[in-house]
Design brief:
The protein is α/β, with parallel strands linked by helices. The protein is built from 14 helices and 15 strands. Bound molecules: pyridoxal-5'-phosphate. Belongs to the class-I pyridoxal-phosphate-dependent aminotransferase family.
């Protein structure tokens, strides 16, 4: 008797935690130390959770042993609503907020509630691959619009427009972007939103990195630029608040909800079916959004994240045959391997060879639905000295690497 996975899984991929991990685990079991640069988990790299968040969760633990409302506790939803009211979304109220077990769960619910088989969702390439995976699992078709590396990885509006069909239901905007670090200017966002407006698309704005910005970049909430569109904005505590393990995120509904009443009923049903988000972590939300703690000291000049971003970007560009667009936000760099210099045909094999030889784990570019095997993603989370050493080792590895 063989139990097989559902045929619905056939095209579902999530390479950030893909099969290469098993090799990394085996190396560690054999006594090697592996530098894991695959998941954006600040806790692994010496980032402490803000004390006031921890204290609030501990203080409320004895109250958090029961199920909560499916959407999440009122105090946390109020904190999220107030946060967005002060940032260009004055109409948002507590009933427009859903808390989730991380943004990941909410992405899954938002997509599942929308799609019929064959419905299309516009997703950037490269993308944070969960969007593509859940679209496929929901029976939909992920249609990738290209981001242009020669234009700082900004989406190409013509390409986006050319990919809209009568089956397109939603537009996913990931800003600041994982894996490229691009931060979208206002005019570009307005252009994207205008396409959504003309083609009556739901907007999914994944803005989990909206406070991790370098070089004075300004983040614009897509929802605030298009109050006339039904928009779901996603963010949470994993990155800017460094508590990824709490699994705490939120979704904000905005725009003319009367146009989406049926969809929202479905979303509500899915929220009820998961009963509620993890209750202790919900108590972290009010402390995070209402508290004194801030990520500014990490991203401003002299800040740890900013320095690490600089080191990663500089060292990568020093490697012959490697070029990297400067990340303007988020926690990653997405360098290009010049195919004329590095003839890589299979980037998963490249990543595995790098792991086996140098004990450094990165993620192949095709894992982010990038169409060619000529990129990889590296985290900018390790201390500058560790990043510097790791990227020099990647350079030495590439110098002798032939596939
Ligand atoms: N969205 C983006 C763009 C991400 O990079 C991530 C995690 O890396 C998530 C969503 C999911 O975050 P979480 O489920 O931890 O809230």
């Amino acid at each position: 008797m063989q139990f097989k996975q559902s045929s619905k899984m056939a095209d579902v991929c999530y390479e950030i935690r893909g099969p290469v991990i098993e090799h990394a685990d085996a190396l560690e079991e054999a006594g090697h130390s592996v530098l894991r640069l695959n998941t954006g988990n600040p806790a692994l790299f010496g980032f402490e959770a803000p004390e006031e968040i921890l204290q609030d969760v501990i203080r409320n633990l004895s109250r958090a042993h029961g199920y909560t409302e499916s959407r999440g506790i009122l105090a946390a939803r109020r904190a999220v609503a107030q946060h967005y009211q002060g940032r260009g979304l004055p109409e948002v109220g507590v009933d427009d907020i859903y808390l989730g077990n991380g943004v990941s769960e909410l992405i899954s619910m938002a997509v599942q509630a929308l799609l019929d088989d064959g419905d299309e969702v516009l997703i950037p390439a490269p993308d944070f691959p969960l969007w593509t995976a859940v679209t496929t699992l929901a029976g939909g078709k992920a249609v990738h619009y290209l981001c242009d590396e020669s234009a700082d990885w900004l989406p190409d509006l013509d390409d986006l427009a050319s990919k809209i069909t009568d089956r397109t239901r939603a537009l996913v905007i990931i800003n600041p972007n994982n894996p490229t670090g691009a931060v979208y200017p206002r005019e570009l966002l307005e252009g994207m939103l205008d396409l959504a407006r003309r083609h009556q698309l739901l907007v999914f704005a994944d803005e989990i990195y909206d406070r991790i910005l370098y070089d004075g970049e300004i983040h614009h909430h897509a929802a605030a630029l298009a109050p006339d569109l039904v928009c779901l904005t996603f963010s949470g505590l994993s990155k800017a608040y460094r508590v990824a393990g709490f699994r705490s995120g939120w979704l904000v509904l905005s725009g003319p909800q009367q146009h989406a009443a049926d969809y929202l009923e479905g979303l509500g049903t899915l929220a009820s079916m998961r009963l509620c988000p993890n209750a202790p972590a919900q108590y972290a939300v009010q402390a995070a959004l209402g508290g004194r703690q801030s990520i500014d000291e990490l991203v401003l000049p002299g800040g740890r994240l900013r320095e690490q971003r600089d080191v990663a970007w500089e060292r990568l560009n020093e490697i012959p045959g490697v070029s990297c667009v400067k990340p303007r936000g988020a926690l990653y760099a997405f360098p290009r391997l010049d195919p004329k210099v590095h003839r890589i045909h299979d980037d998963e094999k490249f990543v595995l060879d790098l792991l086996l030889r140098e004990k450094i784990q990165v993620v192949q570019g095709t894992g982010f639905n990038w169409p060619r095997p000529d990129h990889f993603r590296i985290l900018t989370l390790p201390y500058a000295d560790d990043l510097d050493a790791a990227i020099r080792r990647i350079g030495r590895f590439l110098a002798g690497y032939r596939q």
